[in-house]
Specification:
The structure is a homodimer of 197-residue chains. Chain A is built from eight helices and six strands; from the N terminus they run αααββαβαβαβαβα. By secondary structure, the first copy, chain A, is α/β, with parallel strands linked by helices. The first copy, chain A, has two domains: 49 residues, RecR Domain 1 (Helicase, Ruva Protein, domain 3); 99 residues, Dna Topoisomerase Vi A Subunit, Chain: A, domain 2, CATH 3.40.1360.
Chain lengths: 197, 197
């Protein structure tokens, strides 16, 4: 006989689709659901459907939004644009509470290995925004990996000739870390980019 | 401004209700959901609702079932009853493929600290099943902790006088483990219960 009855087996299977969730964890989640009040499970299911139904991309910056434009595009200083790979990077920058400008989500980075070229990500949309005027600085906040660096360099080559300030996030030793455990690449960058006090 | 838009924030909040899921993990899960095809998310939501709607407890053994009686009660040898704390313990025993009898799920163990007495768990239901006749052996498979042991002893004191064989799962060194890392309690039990070859 099968070990799980059908509805439980099905739910366990659904949970294993989440990142990093194996059979054991999915089983724990399913038991938790079985023991939740029905109203709470209904709210959970509704939240799942809601996110697919109500979340879309801002027509200007490509970030998640419920309306046509996102809250950031509607309310903030449009002269500085922070370019990121994905909507979740917007969250990461927002959590610093330091950035007062707007965003441009590329929805990917240039990666020839994965057949992603400059035309497959939202670079032309960025150029169109710049062409409309009012943008004074473009901060390139793509990841510090091969694809992120290549994308940053490519965008720099297009935007800098337009006379717009282009900057890149600083590399260096993370706050609270230990020199001993910092990798050589990072430490070398931290040395090269050292700040005169 | 708030960091997450409402539908995403709500879904993250729902995910944090799962055991062991913190804000970061919930966020990863939510992003995965946003990037899933709508049909898959609908199947996920349906599986959640389904499990609350279709899963109930077997009227005989207390295990999860879709119908009135569970598959185990309908098809297996009723002369041996394995007594466990929770439905998930049934799954654990079933996975061994060694047990051919039926189960009795107590839905708890005696725990005076938590105000759970013998009448709060399904002990009288077990006695009623025994009174109906046909049961030759009761295997006590509650956990080897204080509450599980106390519950096993209590049930033994009620069932043994009825002339029914009562047994308890063997304690000892887990298969594949190392003597060096086995705790003293377990090793002492393994010594005391040593098997003559």
């Amino acid at each position: 006989m099968k070990v799980f009855i059908e509805p439980i087996g099905r739910l366990i299977n659904e949970f294993t689709k989440l990142p990093g969730v194996g059979a054991k964890t999915a089983q724990r989640y399913a038991y938790k659901i079985i023991n939740m009040p029905t109203a709470e499970v209904e709210a959970f299911a509704e939240a799942l459907l809601c996110v697919k139904r109500d979340v879309r991309y801002c027509s200007v910056c490509g970030n998640f939004t419920e309306g046509e434009l996102c809250d950031v595009c509607l309310t903030r200083d449009k002269s500085v644009v922070c370019v990121v790979k994905e909507p979740k990077d917007v969250i990461a920058v927002e959590k610093t509470h330091e950035f007062k400008g707007v965003y441009h989500v590329l929805h990917g980075t240039i990666s020839p290995m994965d057949n992603v070229g400059p035309n497959d990500i939202r670079i032309k949309e960025l150029l169109a925004r710049i062409a409309e005027g009012g943008i004074e600085e473009v901060i390139l906040a793509t990841n510090p990996d091969v694809e992120g660096e290549a994308t940053a360099m490519y965008i720099t080559s297009l935007v800098k000739p337009l006379g717009i300030k282009v900057s890149r996030l600083a590399h260096g030793i993370p706050i609270g870390s230990d020199l001993e455990y910092t990798d050589e690449m990072t430490l070398a960058r931290a040395l090269a980019d050292r700040k005169v006090l």
